[in-house]
Design brief:
- This protein has 390 residues and is of the alpha+beta class.
- The protein folds into 3 domains: 172 residues, Nucleotidyltransferase, domain 5 (2-Layer Sandwich), CATH 3.30.420.380; 49 residues; 77 residues, 2-Layer Sandwich (Alpha-Beta Plaits).
- Helix content is 41%, strand content 24%.
- The chain has 9 helices and 14 strands.
- The protein has a 6-stranded mixed sheet, with helices on one face. Strands 10, 11, 12, 13 and 14 form a 5-stranded antiparallel sheet that branches. A 3-stranded antiparallel sheet has the order 5-7-6.
- The longest helix has 72 residues.
- The radius of gyration is 58 Å and the shape is rod-shaped.
- This is Tfp pilus assembly protein PilN.
- InterPro entries: ATPase_NBD, Extracell_DNA_Util/SecSys_Comp, PilN.
- It comes from Rhodanobacter denitrificans.
- Keywords: Membrane, Transmembrane, Transmembrane helix.
Length: 390
């Protein structure tokens, strides 16, 4: 643990510096204040604003305590009155009475030193020294002050003052151990533990802690543990809500996919029925066109019967799919049959197939005549308006 802490300290300092430089702390402070204003006054104390600093000062033999940024003294006591007649320490009693309304978890005490007892130096340090300010300041102690590192308590804080390129401004705050140790020993004798040793700046403090990290008292923070538990619960609830939302989206997606599949099946069925309807309509149209464009067999028989003479009679009459007509029979004058069929509107290209032969039984001439059915031409559709005929 001791070897890991120094290696993690630069990273922690870098994160802390980035957090302080970001606008998030100010925004969260403003937002929390606005939310606290919405709560009843009795509940606002449960949501405190963090550390509540109170300042201890020593002048001569007199101790005083006041709240940071306030000039009003809340309690005071003298070094010579450490113990009352009944054996009770005066300082802790006075301090407790002054701070009885302050939440013990938020209470922070800072010992303020007068400016005359503190040495302050402004340094221009390289940017690489930001991650190890205390260590760099310790190396610079002999050059910047007349003291050695073992003789002082010190702190370093980064300034917003302009600095040369590649450097930043920092302030070194130093107090000798001979000055600070007696005050800390006196406070420990009175049963008072301080969280910081700082420099007075008006009614507030400078913001530098001269107290070494090993001497800072460890304070239990049950609210922080509660906040961590609440934060973990919030994250868990958020994850559960997101998981439930994702589950609902997946169910909705599965339902939509099922509906799409059902609609696709219905669409395929409708497409099949439409295709069947189109096929049936095409077949019906084809039959209608075939019927319209084909000469009726009854009309053809009527035409042949009307044009052949009464002395001719047929033994065979055939019509194939190509419109070829075959007439086989007997007639007294078979050669005149071509003239009888010449002006027909239904039969064209009449000609004898083979030779005309006499039949000794009937005394007539046997013939075989071929012709073609004169198919009617389909009607020509009129050209579209504004267009030219093909």
């Amino acid at each position: 643990m001791s070897t890991a802490t120094p290696s993690l300290r630069p990273w922690v300092e870098r994160m802390r510096r980035g957090w302080r430089a970001s606008p998030l702390p100010g925004f969260l402070g403003w937002w929390g204040g606005q939310l606290r204003e919405l709560l009843p006054p009795r509940w606002r104390g449960w949501f405190g604003g963090g550390a509540d600093w109170h300042l201890l000062q020593h002048a001569g033999t007199q101790w005083s305590v006041r709240r940071s940024d306030h000039a009003e003294v809340l309690a005071s006591w003298d070094d010579g009155a450490d113990t009352a007649a009944d054996g009770v320490r005066v300082a802790p009693v006075a301090l407790s009475a002054a701070l009885k309304r302050v939440d013990r978890e938020d209470l922070r005490l800072a010992l303020l030193l007068p400016p005359a007892r503190v040495l302050r130096r402004t340094l221009a340090l390289p940017l690489a020294a930001r991650d190890n300010l205390l260590q760099v300041a310790g190396f610079e102690m002999d050059r910047q002050t007349p003291f050695t590192l073992a003789q002082v308590y010190y702190a370093v804080r980064e300034l917003a003052a302009p600095a040369p390129p590649g450097r930043f401004s920092a302030e070194l705050v130093v107090a000798t151990r001979d000055t600070l140790d007696p005050l800390l020993a006196r406070l420990r004798a009175q049963g008072i533990a301080v969280d910081a040793v700082d420099l007075a700046a008006g009614d507030s403090r400078l913001g530098a802690n001269l107290l070494p990290p090993e001497q800072v008292p460890h304070r239990a923070r049950p609210r922080r543990r509660l906040n961590l538990i609440l934060a973990a619960a919030s994250v868990l609830l958020a994850v559960l809500v997101l998981g439930e939302w994702l589950h609902n989206r997946q169910l909705a997606l599965a339902q939509m996919q099922a509906e799409v599949e059902a609609m696709r099946g219905e669409a395929q069925q409708v497409a099949g029925l439409r295709q069947q309807l189109q096929d049936n309509a095409g077949a019906a149209g084809f039959l209608a066109r075939r019927k319209r464009d084909t000469v009726a067999m009854l009309g053809l028989l009527q035409e042949v019967t009307g044009r052949l003479p009464d002395s001719a009679w047929l033994e065979r009459f055939s019509v194939d799919n190509t419109g070829q007509v075959g007439l086989q029979g007997q007639s007294q004058q078979a050669a005149k049959l071509l003239d009888a069929l010449k002006d027909s509107k239904l039969i064209t290209d009449a000609s004898f197939q083979g030779s005309i032969q006499p039949d000794p039984t009937t005394g007539k001439e046997r013939f075989y005549l071929t012709a073609r059915v004169n198919q009617p031409k389909p009607p020509v559709s009129p050209p579209a308006a504004g267009g030219s005929a093909p």
